[in-house]
Amino acid sequence: MNYIVVTGGTSKIGEELIYKLSKSSNVIFTYNKSKKKAEQIKKKFKKISTNKIFSFKLNLESQNEIQKFYEFLTKKKIKIKSFVHNAFINFSRKSFLKIKKNNVENYIMANCFGSFLLTQLITKLIIKSTIEDKSLIFISSQSAEYGGFELTAYSASKGFINSLSNSLSKELGEYKIRTNVLSLGKIESNQLMKNFNWDKKKLISDIPLGYVGKPKDVSEIVNNLIFNSPYLSGANIKLSGGR
Ligand SMILES: NC(=O)c1ccc[n+]([C@@H]2O[C@H](COP(=O)([O-])OP(=O)(O)OC[C@H]3O[C@@H](n4cnc5c(N)ncnc54)[C@H](OP(=O)(O)O)[C@@H]3O)[C@@H](O)[C@H]2O)c1
Questions:
Q1: How many A from CA of 51 to the centre of ligand 1?
Q2: In CATH, what number is assigned to the domain containing residue 194?
Q3: From the CB of 184, is ligand 1 less than 6 Å away?
Q4: Distance of CA 231 from the midpoint of ligand 1 (Å)
Q5: Percentage of the chain modeled with pLDDT above 90
Q6: pLDDT tens digits for 118-168?
Q7: Is residue 17 within 8 Å of residue 184, measured between CB atoms?
């Protein structure tokens, strides 16, 4: 059976992606610091899915780890159907004038440079897979397009991802690989709640549908992008409750 590669499987959104996608496919997910969480996720899903689940430690800032992941996938001769790039460095909000040089470097090294290299290597493997409908999906943020208050480096690095996906949709059509972006508004996560000081009223004040999105809302769309959208490529879909 084919595999779907999901980065950042240890985030709430990542876990829900694994849950949804493992129903119809084998899944390999990456984690960075949360090894224990990764083990728990595997244990939990092995109980409910007969499909295979692997995890791999991958820090997007490390070219060495990206290369090792590529070698692992190559050695296992894994046929990849889709790549869902969800992992991202996101520190707490900081004003533009105060953000530290090394933090900016982290954002660029992981979210831009690391994402680029990883996507390049995984694309080489996807090209080799003899599968009908192949795709790359980048989890991005509304802040890339509209800006984010005290989120300058984060938003700019998401802008990089959006442009990367657009350009890839021009180059990879030749290999029948579709590439799309899913731009998230506010989706339930610890980081988001922390950014809003756990003030729920403030959090939903600018969401027309009146509630914060659930990780399940994300996984449903990703599943559709992978399995039910054969002509969709070069799109940037806003998932924001109308915000
Ligand atoms: N939640 C929202 O409202 C929202 C809004 C817009 C966009 N997004 C996007 O949705 C995705 C998931 O968001 P989230 O809020 O669920 O994120 P999160 O809880 O902050 O999780 C981030 C994920 O990325 C991994 N990661 C962090 N630094 C990494 C690095 N240097 N190398 C490799 N992996 C790394 C983490 O792994 P470890 O846990 O193992 O360290 C974790 O799995 C992200 O792309 C985020 O930008 C979320």
A1: 25
A2: 3.40.50.720
A3: yes
A4: 28
A5: 90
A6: 999 999 999 999 999 999 999 999 999 999 999 999 999 999 999 999 999
A7: no
